[in-house]
Amino acid sequence: MRALFMHNVQRVGLRFNYKQEPYDDPRVRQALWLVIDKDEVVEKVLRGNGNIGTHFNVGFAPNESFDELYTLPGYQRDPDGTQADADIAEAKRLMAEAGYPDGFSDELITNVIGCSPPTAQLVSQQWKEHLNVDMTISQYDTATLYVRYRDTTFGVLAPCGSGIILPDPSDILNQWYGKDTMRNALNWTTPRFEELKEAQVRELDPEKRKLIFAEMVDVLREEVSHYLPIGWMHAGGALDYRIRNYHVPRTIQLVHKWDQAWWDENAEKPPVGTGYQP
């Protein structure tokens, strides 16, 4: 069998309405993110088919290597391999400082498909256990969820599977940090972040450009932006010459489209080196 395997990555994280209480306080956003066991999400929700979350493409920014991440708050592990007690203690301190020592109740919205529902369920369990934050999970079809994205009629949203179309971190900037976009309808930014966005466009040296993104990561961590990463999910598909009328997809949104395809067991196997003919 001759087959082509196509690979793509998708983001798993939290999106906050940072202009709505209690999420308008960065201490609350940071606390909720700190107590999430990212490794548990990768293991139980992504079934090991992924990695802990970074702000940009995995390993692109020098300060988002996995070795460094595991030394940082929110990713640390205790010597026995469990989630760091220090992160949980810091989250509780931040909640108390923000005025929520006993937690709060709210709605956590998510999609009805893919890994979104189990992500929301696991995250809400961790929030309840560590911070007494009691979330009612509301699930929506994609179209309705996008309306709530656009209209910002939510407090916190747990999406799982926002596909990255281009293999360059600038696509993340376009989707999540561009102004007047669906995933940044409230136009979160800072003056320095805007300067860095412009600088990375003009920088032609790849290594210098990575350093610009590293500074962006520092800004995102310090400001605790509207989006906080949990993990990366790997996705892909296989292509065989006996699958007819299926063309190599240009984006993740097309990887799983099989409406017009069919299997032809008697299809003629093309000679090696001639390429696939759908």
From TrEMBL:
Pfam families, alphabetized: SBP_bac_5
Q: Which domain of life is it from?
A: Eukaryota
Please provide, alphabetically and separated by semicolons, the GO molecular function terms listed in this UniProt record.
Answer: peptide transmembrane transporter activity
Question: What biological process terms from GO does the record include?
Answer: peptide transport
Q: What region holds the Solute-binding protein family domain?
A: 13-181
Taking the record's annotation, the residue ranges forming a coiled coil are none
Q: Which InterPro entries match?
A: SBP_5 (IPR039424), SBP_5_dom (IPR000914)
- UniProt record similarity statement: Belongs to the bacterial solute-binding protein 5 family.
What is the protein's given name?
Heme-binding protein A
Q: What is the lineage of its organism?
A: Eukaryota, Metazoa, Porifera, Demospongiae, Heteroscleromorpha
